[in-house]
Design a protein that fits this description.
Blueprint: H1 5-11, H2 18-35, H3 37-52, H4 56-70, E1 81-86, E2 93-106, E3 109-119, E4 126-132, E5 138-139, H5 143-151, E6 163-164, E7 171-175
Parallel strand pairs: 2-7
Antiparallel strand pairs: 1-2, 2-3, 3-4, 5-6
Length: about 180
Amino acid sequence: MDFFSPVYDHLGINVIGLGFITSIIFIFLVGIFMSSWVGTSVLGLGEWIIRKMPFVSYIYSASKQISSAISPDESSKAFKEVAIVRHPRIGEYTFGFITSTIVLHKSSGDEELCCVYVPTNHLYLGDILLINSKDVMKPNLSVREGIEIVISGGTSVPKLIRVVDFQAMPTARINTFDT
């Protein structure tokens, strides 16, 4: 809070609230600088340095992927849809996010699975479940609404949720070594 105090003392200025106003202006100017070409280059250099650190690079990479997945930016489509799945027991349900749909190729036949990310106590921590697509309920909620429900601890859940029909998503194939 007293970051700019030495400057004001040297100038002999003593105005109530001037430190707060100066801090806001300083943050605004840093934002303008970081959005410029030079600021972007400095940020890119910092990111490059972090990516070269042995252990920190793994944590940074995972954190960046998670933050892009939960960001409200529409260009990032890590979470495809909101899902409701049975978890952990029959009769109990949880919210999750469909990240992809795959086809598991087994000797007994193909099985379509949804990769569902089920957040735990924080949105960036959770379990990844492969669930038969027939067992995944897709509510009439947007990804943004699903994130709001998880972050609010369930306080923003609508009174009525309607399950919509399954819409096929592009699938990937997984081969197993069943005999």
